[in-house]
Amino acid sequence: MATPLSKPKLAANLSMIFPEVEFLDRFAAAAAVGFRAVEYLFPYAYAKTEIRARLDSWGLEQVLFNAPPGDFENGERGVAGLPGREDEFRKSIELALDYAATLRCPRIHVMAGLVPLAGDPRRHREVYVENLSWAAGQARNGSVDLMIEPLNAKDFPGYLIGTPQAARSVIEEVGARNIKLQYDFYHAQMTHGRLLDTFAAEQDLIGHVQIAGVPGRNEPDDSQEINYRAVFAGLETMGYGGWIGCEYRPRGETVAGFAWAAPYGIGPKGKRQG
Ligand SMILES: O=C(O)C(=O)[C@@H](O)CO
Ligand SMILES: [Mg+2]
């Protein structure tokens, strides 16, 4: 059995965990079980000062959120790679950077978007590279890194970036040091497996990590395909010291599902990670 990573830096994904309480109350819930950092999809329905106040009240660090993704409710998954949406993209980055400054958040996930069946993937990729090049310049002023994340094709059919290799080729073409890869072990297992090998191959670009069990995207525990004790041990061996977002859908009540996280100080008796 792999030795647990001595102290994986776990961040609570407030879009997925603690659905029992309202969004703004999830900050308190995360702190109460021992988290000291949070991430989530979108803050834009709330005043940035209100979120800042929650972070301060509970002594939490904001480590990631997403740029506005287009019409998310109606299925859009980002506009960065959508031809004809360049103005909207620029406004979305300006808004995200404004929130990032107040939330003191060093990372923004920029979703690429879906290529329609009749679309030309090469054209979408071209627009994606152009948009990211512009956004990287804007983000550099605020010392923010922009993340791009390969998403699996079962949950996100048509998503422009499906593999770490595709992400790498975009990042290298943009050539900006503040564009990084968000490596989500859930999507990686759903798409290609060989998790630690592929992580090692891309590690020079990786700026953030997320986890969930496969196949259900539930708690990352022993009932699921991925052995996270081995993953955490591998990350430690490779010297990954960044945040690990807990981006999963609890099967039941969130706190009752934290048995997997107890060795890392998260749970009903969770003490704050040092
Ligand atoms: O679904 C994921 O995985 C994410 O990290 C989101 O930011 C995109 O839906
Ligand atoms: Mg993810």
From TrEMBL:
GO BP terms, alphabetized: glyoxylate metabolic process
Family according to the record: Belongs to the hyi family.
Cross-referenced InterPro entries: HPT_OtnI_isomerases, HyI-like, Sugar_Epim/Isomerase, Xyl_isomerase-like_sf, Xyl_isomerase-like_TIM-brl
List of catalytic residues: E149, E247
Keyword list, A-Z: Isomerase, Pyruvate
Matches recorded under Pfam families: AP_endonuc_2
Domain Xylose isomerase-like TIM barrel: from-to ranges: 27-260
Recorded GO MF terms: hydroxypyruvate isomerase activity
Protein name: Hydroxypyruvate isomerase
